[in-house]
Structure formats: structure tokens, C-alpha cells
Amino acid sequence: MKVKITGLLLLCSVVLGMAQQKKWTLEECVYYAVENNLTVEQFELDLENAKIDKSDAVGALLPNLSSSISASANTGLALDPTTNNLVSATIFSASGSMSSSITLFDGLRNYNRIERAKLSAIANQYRLDDIKDDIKLNVANAYLQVLSNKESLKVFKAQLAVTEQDLKKTKELVESGVVARGDLLELEATAAGQEQQIINSQNLILISKLNLAQLLSITDYENFEIAEEEFDIPPSNILDNSAKIIFDTALTFRNDIKFALSGVELAQKDLEISKGAKYPTVGAFINYNTRYSDQNNDPFTGEPIPFKDQLYINDGISYGAQMSIPIFNGWSVRNNIKRSQISVDRARIEFEKTKLQLETDVNQAYVDVTSFYKAYEAAQKTLEARSLAYQYSKEKFDVGLMNSFDFSQAQSRVDNAEAEVIRTKYNYIFRLKILEFYFGIPISLE
After folding, report:
1. Torsion (CA) 177, 178, 180, 185 in degrees, nearest 10
2. pLDDT at 262 (0 to 100)
3. What's the pLDDT tens digit per position in 80-92?
4. Which of 125, 135, 207, 277 makes the best surface tag, with the fewest CB within 10 Å?
5. For this UniProt entry, which residues form the secretion signal (predicted)?
6. Among 228, 229, 206, 224, which residue's Cα sits nearest to residue 19?
7. 213: helix, coil or strand?
8. H-helix or E-strand containing 3?
9. Could you tell me the residue ranges of all domains in the chain?
10. Cα distance between residue 269 and residue 347, in whole Å
11. CA-based nearest residue to 281, from 333, 226, 203, 336
12. Which residue has the higher pLDDT, 252 or 406?
């Protein structure tokens, strides 16, 4: 029995350890953020409200039905509700009714409210999808930032390892009297600076992981880790398309465009609803009622009429139709129509602004992809040149033809060049993914 329990505990610990060591890929982060982000959940509730509004609009077309029951007792002079005679006695009476009414015509306002509710639900879905698009881009940016910081840390550690080897060699030369002690102190200062770079880089990794985890609504920061992968520049032929083609393609599927266009349609439907108030409202009604009184007696026998018989004898039905014609209401209908027309114009302007903003964003992304790739190529050439210069300086330093200060400066220039390559590399990758996203390509690092 103890063996079984021990085995079970061991299995649980292994499973728990595997869960804690999960490495998140970019695709997993994007999917998880969309499904669990608090902003998404908030807008999903707005979408549910829009669906309820649609149900309200449909319900307004249906007949209403209500009923009422009342009972009372009167002592002294009172009106008998069944005979409408004044009597001086203690009377117990009861009544009940059921009524229904329906709007037959209201200038198509109820119908337009249904159509508006449908459009509102669609608009809220577009807005929700647009929020998800923004989250995908934010997650991709945060994920690439973590990768960039991790890659920088590897470079800093490798640089420190090289410096430590130089330190060891320089100590031997100092002890043998070949090199001045000042050169050793300069290298030790360089190593200390590189150790500080490593500490700063580790802090940047932690901060960028926290930012990514917050986008994913993950609170277990200590066990959150992304996949240990190195990404090269992904292949892409997106620049084979002009910025105009990418923009025209984005217009066909971007949710921010659809949301802005649905705003125009909603405003137009509000205008139709406002115009409906100019027309008469026609409705119909029907009412059934009955009553009981303990003073209601049979005129032949003088005996009280039974309760259920009175309900049948004293019942009645009323029905009819009614029309309300707007004649003058202080120009409220006219002013509401004008306000609705202004809202239509405002929505159209907002739609055009959204299109202009999208075109600006696409053009900016297109230029960024080109410029950041050129910056990445330039950074690579700079690193290559700095590395060659560093090798030359190292050869001179090893034979005592260069002092430690000049050598550390050469190494520092290589460090900066390597950091610039990493920075421009991930800046280019992110801009590339933005441009591909505008073209309808899902976010992926493959």
C-alpha cells in the first residue's frame, strides 16, 4: 500500500513539474490571450447585451398580456360592484380581469428597431474581433521582446566568457612581468561592466515576461516561460505586393473597417426610427373582466349566488382599436430627425477617417519593413567590420602592441554592434508580421 501511495505521489509530482515547465510558443500565447484576456471578456458581455436588445425589439411586435385579481371588504354604506347599488352592510367583493393589446402600426419604428438590434449585434461582433486583432499584435510584440532580451542575454554571457579567458591570460602575463598591472585592472573593469549588462538583461527578460503574462491574464509568473527557440529572419514575399494592393485587401476583411461601416448603418437605422415618429400609431386591445360579491342574491330565491356562478354571470368583454396622431409636440420629432441625420453624417466621417487611418498604417508598415530590413543589414555589416577589427586588436593585445584600454574599447564596439543586430532583427520581424497581418496572413514565426 505504501509503495502504491509513493508511486502515486511521484507521478503527481512529475505531472506537476511538466505543467510548470511548459514552454509557450507564439501561437499558443496568441490563442490563449484571445480566449482569456479580460478586455475580450468585457466586450463579449457587450455582445450578449446586444443580443438581448434584439430580443426586446422582437418582443415589442408581439401582443402583451396581463391579468389582475383584487379582493376587498367594506363595512357601512358601500357600493355593491355587482349591482351598482348602495347598500349598508358588510360586503366582501372580488374582481378579476385579463387584457391584451398590440401595436398594429407605428411608422415601422418597431420593425426598424429589430433591424437596428440585428445591426448592433453584428457591430459588437466586429468590435470584439477588432479588439482580438489588437491583442494578437500586442502579444506578438511582447513575445518578440522576450525573445530579443533572451538573445541579448546569451550574447552578453558569451562576451563575459571571452573576457574571463582574457583575464586569466592577462593575470599570467602580469605575474610574469610582461604586461603592466594597469591592463589587468582595465580588463577587470570591463568584466564588471559585462556582469552588470547580464544583470540588466535578466531584469529586462523578467519585465518583458511579466508584460506578456499580463496580456495572457496569467498570474503564475514564476513558472511562465516561452519556448527556447532561436528565430531567424522568416521568409516572406509580402513586398511583392504594393502598399495599395495590401490596403485594398485589408479593406475587405479588417474588423475595424467593418465596425466603422456598421456604425454608418446603425445611424441610418436610427434616422428611420426617428422619421417613424411622424406617422400615426394604431393599436388594438381586448379586455375580459368578472366580479363577485357576497351581497349578490338570486332575485327569485333570495339566496346568495355561488362564487363560480357569479364569475360567469358578471363577466364581460371589451375590445376596440385606437389611433394616436401626432399634431404638434414642440418640434421634438423634427429635432430628433435632425439629430439623427447629424449622427449619420458623423458616422460617415468616422468611417472615412478609419479608412484613412488604415491606409496610413499600411503605408507606414510597408515603409517600416523596408527601412528596418535595411537597418538590420547595416547592423550585420557593422558587426562584421567590428568583429574583424576586434580580432585584429586582440592579436595586437596578445603580443603587447595594444594597451588594455584600447582593447576594451574595441570589445565594447563589438558588444554594441551585436546588441544592435538583435534589436534591428526583432524590430524587422515585428514590422514584417504587422504588414502580413494587414494582408490577412495569421501571426506566426514560421
Report:
1. -100
2. 95
3. 776 777 777 788 8
4. 207
5. 1-19
6. 224
7. helix
8. helix 2-20
9. 30-62+119-147+214-279+331-438, 67-105+283-325
10. 12
11. 333
12. 252
Residue pLDDT, tens place only, 344-387 = 999 999 999 999 999 999 999 999 999 999 999 999 999 999 88
Q: Is residue 189 within 8 Å of 405, Cβ to Cβ? A: no
Cβ(148)–Cβ(426) below 8 Å: yes
CB 190 within 8 A of CB 162: no
Q: Which residues of 24-42 are buried (b: 16+ CB within 10 A; e: fewer)?
A: bebeebbebbbeebeebee
Q: From CA 314, how far away is CA 277, in angstroms rounded?
A: 41
Q: pLDDT value at position 4?
A: 45
Tens of pLDDT, residue by residue over 1-14, are 444 444 444 444 43
CA atoms within 13 A on the CB side of 105: 10
Instruction: Say how many residues make up the chain.
Output: 446
299 vs 239, more confident: 239
Report in angstroms the alpha-carbon separations of 211 from 33, 207, 226, 434.
Answer: 12, 6, 13, 19
Measured CA to CA, the distance from residue 209 to residue 212 in angstroms comes to: 5
Does the CA dihedral 167-173-175-180 come out positive or negative? negative
For residues 304 and 281, give the distance between their C-alpha atoms in angstroms, rounded to a whole number. Answer: 47
**Four-way CATH pick for 30-62+119-147+214-279+331-438: 3.90.1150.10, 3.40.50.150, 1.20.1600.10, 3.40.190.10:** 1.20.1600.10
At position 363, the amino acid (one-letter code) is: N
Q: pTM for this structure?
A: 0.76
Question: What pLDDT is recorded for position 12?
Answer: 43
Which residues, listed in sequence order, are joined to residue 91 by a DSSP beta bridge? 74
Per-residue confidence band for 203, with pLDDT thresholds at 50, 70 and 90: very high
Could you give the 3-state DSSP secondary structure of residue 328? coil
